[in-house]
Write a structure and sequence with these properties.
The structure holds 2 protein chains of 2 kinds. Helices cover 26% and strands 2% of the residues of chain A. Chain A is globular, with a radius of gyration of 25 Å. Chain B is an alpha/beta fold. Chain B has 5 domains: 35 residues; 54 residues, Phosphorylase Kinase, domain 1 (2-Layer Sandwich); 233 residues, 3-Layer(aba) Sandwich (Rossmann fold); 214 residues, 3-Layer(aba) Sandwich (Dimethylsulfoxide Reductase, domain 2); 114 residues, Barwin-like endoglucanases, CATH 2.40.40.20. In chain B, the strands form 9 sheets. In chain B, strands 5-4-19-18-17-6-7 form a 7-stranded mixed sheet, sandwiched between helices. A 6-stranded mixed barrel of chain B has the order 28-32-29-31-30-33. In chain B, strands 10-9-8-13-14 form a 5-stranded parallel sheet. The longest helix of chain B is centred in the N-terminal third of the chain and has 25 residues. The termini of chain B are far apart. Classes of the chains: A mainly alpha, B alpha/beta. Chains A and B meet through helix 4 and helix 7 of A and helix 1, helix 2, strand 1, strand 2 and strand 3 of B.
Chain lengths: 260, 800
């Protein structure tokens, strides 16, 4: 995946500010909003009426953007103002060849071939896994990184197809087995009928129905859309007839052309 | 590529190149060379190589190599979805250490020899004494391979010592079906999983073992449907995670649970009286136990069930009396549709036939049968356990199409189809798997009457139970000879005398038959490496060598070669590998085999129908308009053409010849080995998601091996704490048969209850089957890999 400082097309400094803002908002929300934990009174000590904000109505994170209060009011304003442009990036600068290659390489590193289910790059609970969808259904933003959104419809046995890339502890891999398989590469950019025409979709869309998973504003630089505000992708982008669409070939039987 | 295709492709390449240039100008990057040719991938259909689910994959071939896999959207089984093994199945072809030359052991070392020499060695071994030559095959044999081996042994050598590894995984399912319906294989289909209100997993973990089927169930919930999953299990697994009720039971006590449900149905009168009166009869065990049992009446049935009160069942099984009542409530309701699923948990069981029969009986007694969603469905672990081992009948007692060797009429029919002289087939059943290996490992003077075993498509030195007793002694007996056809070095090739390199999966034509009676076909798409050749060719070439030496058995009645194959009236020398694909040998063998299929109403369509389809479920019956129609619900009047008109359900192969299925009572009895002071733990073995069988293919796939690199022993956290064992610590696991060092994994893939352990069997460096029991079901002869007594010792200490 892309480095965090590029994934929204804004520079590293902006990311630091956003990161700080998120942490601050979270901390402020916790301290100012939720009921603070109060230990039960110790025996023999009279409880004293508290003057804390605990009795004030609890605002949601969403409310905070519109109804600012408290001593750190100014910080909220700054934080949300900074966050906003990140979600809908300014018009893109075209990716350089190196950036495009880095993106393709990062995709390839996690797949045996184009179209294989990507491996999971982090440890998981091997037995109880309802949590995949918490981050990957909507693309949660965590510590400045966006969890990739599922490219396909929701299915509940995630680990049926996606397995961890590194041996689950405490098991250990002595050495990866030598294997001569060479996987199919990505089918490359979609062809255009003329300069300026919308590119065609160069790959199958089965299990890749959610274009925004890779091409949305959270996608890697080089393959993400320049116009995230348009939602109906298929209106302009149709499947390519020349690129690999995984259509089955019919006769002649391959055994006749593959004799010993 | 045809000329027309070439011109089209060239034009497209030009157009694409032009478009690419524009794209370059736009995006600043030129697509890589391979990307420009992505359209050159040729996609074909094939069933997956691994389990018995029978998913279809699309195989992408480019430059003579398989380069990609996709789920086949046209396949009804999997509808485009696969599991992680299926997505990576192509990598199984390309492990670095594929066997590419025949190898013969000379002075203790395996050295390369030619195919010509190898065939001579096989012929020499047969000529030594055909009656002592055995074939050990597999549920991974394609249908034509199994059929050729069957004909080679029973029709050629007049020797019935042929048995498949499927004996170790589904023999009890077969005997269960025979005992109840008089005919093998499930009545239901996977469509039941789309319709059931309740799915009961009887000692089954489909989230890992049949993941595509499990997704078919739980993804209904995503669509807003309600399906209740009851997980009857001996350890908490990934399947339990999705279950509404997780009912942990003590190993082996599933018989008590089934009896407990039937007891309540009878006691409360909530069984389906009309269904039972019209379609069923009652049966109990004989002394000693056999397949037929003996008829009992309803009163006797009720009397025998009487002791299985919910409280008594709770005491035996550990499942609460309330949970037993809950299940009896569900079975007592006619409007709820219930599907039962099971696999090795019930089959690898010293009472395997009995528990299979009991679960069928629960469904019959309650009338949860013959309607979509109401089915007792046994799953298989191998891609063609049904298609080859069961239907072709590559078993010591069987002939193709549900026939058996002791039956004179069956032998005569087979001899007629094979065009061999009357009396060619030996009337005495051969040795079943455990006996075959026992005899191979016994010196001739003590009655060991098997001198040679030819193994194809399986790895018995890894998968047989108690290898110390069944395999290893044979290696020290002079004159014992082991021939192994395989694709990679395995625990079995390591100890073999002759190793033959085989073609794998889409390197050959093939046909499989999955768990729901679906027969599937695929074509060869790439060449096998080096001198690796089709297993089927190996059998035919060995037969030909015998024929050339004048061996009578390899001649048919007219003196022609047993595998005589013609094209346009001229014999094709299919024993010459260069000419093997001059004809489609699979098609020739299948068309002959097909004649066997109608006797038990398991009608198969012509080969060409399977080329067009993503598999068809038998009976496949010709329609008046000439088309061929598959059958989904067998014995059900609305779908099965062989049910008498007007009947809702008819068991037309009833063991009692009166259209009735048998409802069995079989008591719970103690297993042969139970934990005691010296060996205080239950030990269970099984699979994991990433690896298939003995891991010879999946352990060579980097993505699968990194996700699950080695075997481990699963232990309850409290047991580990009590013994002072840390997570990840290497311990010695001991049974009365052996010791194995393994890392402990606590709350990893599964969590056993206190007093229970689990070890997966895929890891060839840690052969857990050296520790398991060879005790087997007296009827199916299937060993029990699921329970024996064990202890755990910390290394460098005396603990237990």
């Amino acid at each position: 995946m892309t480095e965090p400082d590029r994934s929204f097309g804004i520079d590293r400094r902006a990311w630091l500010v956003i990161g700080a803002a998120v942490v601050t908002v979270a901390a402020a929300g916790f301290m100012g909003g939720a009921h603070p934990y109060r230990p039960p009174p110790a025996p023999g000590i009279e409880p004293v009426a508290s003057a804390s904000a605990a009795n004030a109505p609890v605002p949601s994170y969403g409310d905070l953007a519109g109804s600012r209060r408290g001593p750190n009011e100014g910080m909220y304003v700054a934080a949300f103002d900074k966050l906003a442009p990140g979600l809908l990036p300014a018009p893109e600068r075209p990716a350089t060849e190196d950036e495009r290659r880095a993106t393709i390489e990062a995709r390839r590193a996690r797949r045996a071939f184009d179209g294989a289910p990507p491996q999971i790059p982090h440890a998981i609970d091997q037995q109880r896994f309802p949590s995949c969808l918490t981050c990957h259904e909507s693309g949660a933003l965590l510590a400045g990184r966006r969890a990739p959104v599922m490219s396909h419809q929701r299915m509940d046995n995630c680990v049926q197809c996606h397995v961890v890339a590194e041996a689950p502890k405490p098991l250990a891999l002595d050495a990866p087995p030598p294997n001569d398989f060479v996987g199919l590469e990505t089918s490359g950019s979609g062809p255009r009928a003329w300069a300026g025409a919308p590119p065609q979709i160069p790959h199958t869309t089965f299990m890749r129905e959610n274009c925004a998973s890779c091409h949305g504003p959270g996608g890697a630089h080089g393959i993400r859309t320049s116009h995230p505000y348009r939602q109906s992708c298929n209106q302009c982008h149709a499947s390519s007839a020349t690129k690999d669409q995984r259509a089955l070939n019919e006769a002649p039987p391959p055994w006749e052309v593959n004799k010993p | 590529m045809e000329r027309r295709d070439f011109i089209k492709a060239s034009a497209m390449t030009a157009a694409t190149a032009a478009a690419s240039r524009l794209a370059v100008a736009q995006d600043g990057v030129e697509p890589s060379v391979s990307a420009r040719h992505a359209g050159d991938v040729r996609w074909q259909k094939a069933p997956c190589r691994f389990c018995g689910t029978g998913c279809h994959v699309q195989v992408g071939v480019k430059g003579g190599k398989v380069v990609a896999i996709a789920g086949d959207q046209q396949a009804e089984v999997n509808r485009g979805l696969l599991c992680v093994k299926g997505y990576h199945v192509a990598l199984a072809l390309y492990g670095k250490d594929r066997l590419t030359r025949p190898l013969l052991r000379k002075n203790g070392k395996l050295v390369p020899i030619s195919w010509n020499e190898a065939l001579d060695v096989i012929a020499d071994r047969v000529m030594l004494d055909p009656k002592g030559f055995a074939f050990y095959g597999s549920g991974q044999w394609t249908i034509p391979e199994g059929y050729a081996a069957q004909k080679f042994m029973k029709g050629g050598l007049s020797c019935n010592h042929i048995d498949p590894n499927a004996r170790l995984c589904m023999a009890s399912a077969v005997t269960g079906f025979l005992a109840v319906y008089g005919v093998d294989e499930p009545a239901g289909v996977y469509d039941d999983l789309d319709r059931a209100d309740v799915v009961i997993l009887w000692g089954n973990n489909p989230a890992e073992m049949h993941p595509v089927l499990f997704s078919r169930i739980i993804d209904r919930r995503v669509r807003g449907e309600k399906v209740t999953i009851i997980d009857l299990c001996t350890r908490h697994t990934r399947s339990s995670q999705h279950a509404d009720h997780v009912l942990l039971f003590k190993p082996h006590t599933d018989l008590a649970i089934a009896n407990g449900i039937m007891h309540l149905l009878v006691e409360r009168g909530t069984f389906d009286r009309e269904f039972v009166q019209r379609h069923c009869a009652f049966r109990g065990d004989n002394e000693p136990m056999d397949l037929a049992g003996k008829p009992i009446d309803f009163a006797e049935f009720k009397r025998r069930l009487a002791e299985y009160t919910p409280e008594k069942v709770q005491e035996i099984s550990g499942v609460s009396a309330d949970a037993i009542r809950m299940m009896a409530d569900l079975f007592g309701k006619r409007d709820v549709r219930i599907t039962s699923l099971w696999c090795m948990g019930m089959n690898q069981h010293t009472r395997g036939t009995a528990i299979n029969a009991l679960v069928h009986s629960v469904h019959l007694l309650s009338g949860h049968f013959g309607r979509p969603g109401d089915a007792p469905t046994s799953l298989t672990g191998q891609p063609s356990a049904c298609g080859t081992a069961r239907e072709v009948g590559t078993l010591a007692h069987a002939l193709p199409g549900g026939r058996v060797v002791p039956n004179a009429a069956h032998r005569a029919e087979s001899e007629q189809i094979w065009n061999v002289p009357e009396g060619r087939i030996n009337p005495k059943p051969g040795h079943h798997t455990v006996l075959m290996w026992e005899k191979f490992s016994t010196p001739p003077e003590q009655g060991g009457d098997i001198h040679t075993i030819w193994v194809q498509v399986t790895n018995p030195a890894h998968s047989l139970p108690n290898r110390h007793a069944l395999v290893d002694p044979s290696r020290k007996i002079p004159g014992r000879f082991l021939i192994v056809s395989d694709v990679y070095p395995t625990a079995t090739t390591e100890i073999a005398d002759l190793v033959l390199p085989s073609a794998l999966w889409v390197e050959k034509n093939g046909m499989f038959g999955n768990s729901e009676r679906r027969t599937q076909q695929w074509y060869r798409m790439v060449k096998p490496p080096g001198e690796a050749r089709d297993d089927c060719w190996q059998i035919i070439a060995a037969a030909r060598r015998l024929f050339e030496r004048g061996f009578e058995g390899m001649k048919d009645k007219d003196g022609r070669f047993l595998f005589h194959t013609e094209k346009a009236g001229k014999e094709v020398p299919i024993w010459d590998f260069a000419r093997y694909y001059d004809v489609n040998v699979d098609e020739h063998l299948f068309e002959e085999y097909r004649k066997f299929s109608t006797y038990k109403h398991k009608d198969l369509a012509p080969y060409s129908e399977y080329v067009k389809a993503r598999g068809l479920r038998w009976p496949v019956v010709k329609q008046p308009d000439g088309s061929w129609k598959e059958t989904r619900w067998r014995f059900a009047g609305f779908d099965d053409p062989y049910v008498k008109k007007g009947e809702n359900v008819e068991f037309y192969h009833s063991p009692t010849n009166d259209g009735r299925a048998q409802i069995w009572f079989s008591p719970y009895v103690l297993p042969p080995e139970v934990p005691d002071d010296k060996f205080p733990f239950w030990l269970c073995t099984g699979r994991v998601l990433e690896h298939w069988h003995t891991g010879t293919m999946t352990m060579r796939i980097p993505q699968l091996r990194s996700a699950m690199p080695e075997a481990y022993v699963e232990m309850n956290r409290d047991d580990a704490r009590r013994l002072g064992i840390q997570n990840g610590e290497r311990v010695a696991l001991e049974t009365r048969r052996g010791t194995l060092e393994l890392p402990v994994w606590i709350d990893g893939r599964g969590s056993p209850p206190p007093g229970s352990l689990f070890v997966p069997f895929f890891d060839e460096k840690r052969l857990i089957n050296e520790l398991t029991l060879q005790a087997h079901c007296p009827i199916s002869k299937e060993p029990d890999y699921k329970k024996c007594a064990a202890r755990v010792r910390r290394l460098g200490s005396g603990g237990a």
